[in-house]
Amino acid sequence: MGILTLRASQRRSLERQLRSTRDARAYRRTRAILCIGRGEPVADIARRLRGTRRVVYHRVRTYARHRPLRSAWSLEGHPKEVRLTGRNGRRVVFGATNLRTGHRVFLARARQPAGDSRALLRSVRSAYRGWRVVRLPDEDPSHTANGSVPLAERFGIELLWLPKRVPKL
Predict the structure, then answer these.
(1) Angle at CA of residue 19, ends 36 and 58, nearest 5°
(2) Could you tell me the pTM of the whole model?
(3) pLDDT tens, residue by residue, 40-86
């Protein structure tokens, strides 16, 4: 299963939007979603659209959270009931990349508790045993949880903490 699964009706809707838009940003956003839906590698999409992988992931995540409602009709004067479940397909993808070879390790989970962060550390250790591993965590609670930092130290994984976000930048 890929990052995003599109139904045929969603794909047709996005393709219509792609043909009708004159806005370059909307074009790139829609194009990225269609390419991800086809299973193309994120790095290739980012290169082709002259963006970064982070931007592509953000566009897909935003689309997955706020999918457009399907069109429907009803008799005049009788509003159509639209059921919203509030349970969009969400998941967290933990990952690590070997910067020399490009080899990646992914771990997809439903949420982001500290235990899943530690599971990624175990996966990275088994995949890159004997290599120098550097992790770039931020201040997320799963990265700073009681077991994550000591486990990284025990595995010999160096932690380079990212600076706090600055909204003004």
Answers:
(1) 30
(2) 0.45
(3) 888 888 888 777 888 777 777 777 665 555 555 667 777 766 665 55
